[in-house]
Protein: High-affinity zinc uptake system membrane protein ZnuB
Organism: Marinobacter fuscus
Amino acid sequence: MTIINAILGDFFWRALLAGAGVALVAGPLGCFVVWRRLAYFGDTLAHSALLGIALSFLIRLPLNLGVVITCVSVALVLVALSRTRTLATDTLLGILAHSALAIGLVALSFMPNVRVDLTGLLFGDLLAVTRQDLLWIYSGAVFVLALLAVLWRGLLMSTIHEELARVEGIPVERLRLVLMLMFSLVIAVAMKMVGVLLITALLIIPAATARRLARTPEQMTLLAILFGLVAVGGGLSLSWHLDTPAGPSVVVTAFAVFLLVYASARK
């Protein structure tokens, strides 16, 4: 127990545990982002997180809960608007992403009594992770991984062939909403680690790296988790030795691993 308390009392080890928890859940979900080509969708949800932070301060909600509620609301609005076919989906995503980010920043500027570290929110502050943050991260990770385990077949079928999944009686629309909920949770838990602007990168890059080497969906999921863990460990080491920002360093490491894998796979 003394060893555990010593580890949790050291900010570097807390950051490492937090990053590992996020990597465990970002890997599998990142695979669905890559398979379903949802990069812009994830980006829109991530940008709306700042609006969630502003609303949390306004109505005095816990930040993580406010972010989840806002992300889920934005996701539902996106689904509703995309069905109208008034605008192309990528145009709609671009409008909502930047509008949500801008509204969040403007809303925070009208709260002079609220002191917010915008740099930390936008780019992450992994080294400031607390024990409470760790509890939130691992609770969210366990919940999302349990949902993925239960819904894996349905999510995979609806991703591979949506029409065939409907014929087999798989509730495609319900699964899409559950997937959005899981994205929202991951964004909420990863926000403090890599920041609003870099969350999507942590979802996409390890999964894209794994896709180069994997032969099955399950193998890609495991490799995405592994590459996420490597990115976290390497990024924190880089930050420690070179005094660079922790969140961006994790993403830079993930990108370096991506380049290394793709370069070696061509030979």
